[in-house]
Write a structure and sequence with these properties.
There is one protein chain. It is built from 3 helices and no strands. It is mainly α.
Length: about 100
């Protein structure tokens, strides 16, 4: 009974197609998101460089803890870059599924 009522209600709703052109400041929000993604990717690259240095120093100085932490940091920085780079696609895909 309730499921039938909800399906009728959902069928009556018009499709939603968000667009930044109708929103005041939409271009500014796009610019801020681009800057945030750029800064996040830059942080991931710097973390990967630091991780490589930690791996090298750990291996050369016989400190396996540094090398281990460097490897974990490298994996985390790569995963962070993947998430930042694909965030827009993930959100758009989720919106399309709804």
């Amino acid at each position: 009974m309730i499921a039938t009522d909800l399906s009728v209600l959902a069928a009556e709703l018009p499709p939603v197609d968000p667009d930044r052109s109708g929103m005041p400041g939409g271009q500014a929000i796009d610019t801020l998101m681009s800057w945030a993604m750029y800064l996040a990717l830059t942080a991931c690259v710097l973390a990967a460089i630091g991780a490589g240095a930690a791996i090298a120093l750990g291996m050369l100085s016989q400190r396996p803890m540094w090398a281990e932490r460097g490897k974990v940091a490298l994996i985390c920085s790569v995963l962070g870059a993947v998430v930042v780079g694909s965030a827009v696609t993930i959100v758009n895909t989720g919106f399309a599924l709804a």
